[in-house]
Specification:
This protein is of the alpha/beta class. 51% of the residues lie in helices and 13% in strands. It has a six-stranded parallel β-sheet, sandwiched between helices. Helix 5 (100-114) runs parallel beside helix 6 (130-143). It starts with a helix and ends with a helix. Bound molecules: ligand V07. The site of ligand V07 has 19 residues, from helix 3, strand 2, helix 5, helix 6 and strand 4.
């Protein structure tokens, strides 16, 4: 009797998610979704666990989010994994975080390959530990012929530095006669950014209740829809992603109606 009830309840729950996915796929989904995955430390603190436990739990949510984004037909998913500011955290926490790409890829790279996901990274590679960079470069290499979802990790990324560096490269190309000042417009400038080959995000999601951009993709988010939630990243579920996309679609529909 208990078993029957349990089975039925579970079947209903999972079909609800499937139904929601089908419902959402009837309307255009955002091409590029960017996420600030905040609240991992707070999640751990609430459970009297070390902060690293929150980061580890957050890593599992990266996998679920990636798989759903792929299923929905989202073209690019950019995840803010580590900022240039995050080096200020305790040394042991930074060291632990820098092991996460290896752990993640050690477990999930075959699944990413199977699902046609292409791994990419944007950020300052030179300051990363070699073991971290090696793991990521191996994943980039092994997935470079895939043409499904682009999973773009922002790692040791900071938006103002990115802009300043783009300006420096523009000046260099102007001084060397590669670029004329008259040729410089928004499109050309974009090609000097780390996101040169990406469309701008259509939707930005930030978890954990902070309503700021925190130096994330300042140039690229100029026209994006912004969606904030109090949910902490380790608690961010498939339903939450669907809710964000549904809100995006409703805003687009209203906008289109004007
Ligand atoms: C990190 C887990 C998610 C919450 C945010 C902070 C901690 C997955 C990766 C990763 C990066 C590159 C890659 C494959 C996986 C990752 C960092 C932190 C630095 F190719 N999660 N995760 N990288 N966290």
């Amino acid at each position: 009797m208990f078993n029957k009830f349990w089975l039925r309840k579970n079947r209903k729950d999972s079909s609800t998610l499937r139904d929601k996915i089908e419902e959402i796929k009837k309307m255009p989904v955002p091409n590029h979704v960017a996420i600030i995955m905040d609240g991992n430390g707070r999640w751990a603190k609430k459970r009297a666990l070390p902060r690293i436990a929150g980061h580890h739990e957050g890593m599992k949510v990266v996998r679920k989010t990636t798989m759903l984004a792929n299923k929905l037909g989202i073209k690019t998913l950019t995840l803010y994994a580590f900022s240039t500011e995050n080096w200020k955290r305790p040394k042991n926490e930074v060291e632990y975080i820098m092991r996460l790409p290896e752990e993640f890829l050690g477990t999930f790279l075959p699944e990413l390959v199977e699902n046609n996901v292409q791994v990419k990274m944007m950020g300052y590679k030179n300051q990363l530990p070699v073991h971290t960079l090696h793991a990521i470069e191996k994943a980039i290499e092994e997935t470079k012929h895939n043409n499904g979802l682009v999973l773009n990790f922002a790692l040791n990324y900071g938006s103002r530095s990115e802009i300043v560096d783009a300006v420096k490269q523009v000046l260099n190309d102007c001084n060397n006669g590669i670029l004329k000042e008259t040729e410089l417009d928004e499109k050309t400038f974009s090609s000097y950014m780390m996101t040169a080959n990406f469309a701008d995000p259509d939707l930005l999601i930030r978890t954990s209740g902070e309503i700021r951009l925190s130096n994330f993709m300042l140039w690229q988010l100029a026209y994006s829809e912004l969606w904030f939630t109090d949910v902490l990243w380790p608690d961010f579920s498939e339903e939450h992603l669907l809710e964000a996309i549904e809100t995006f679609q409703n805003r687009q529909r209203r906008f289109g109606g004007l």
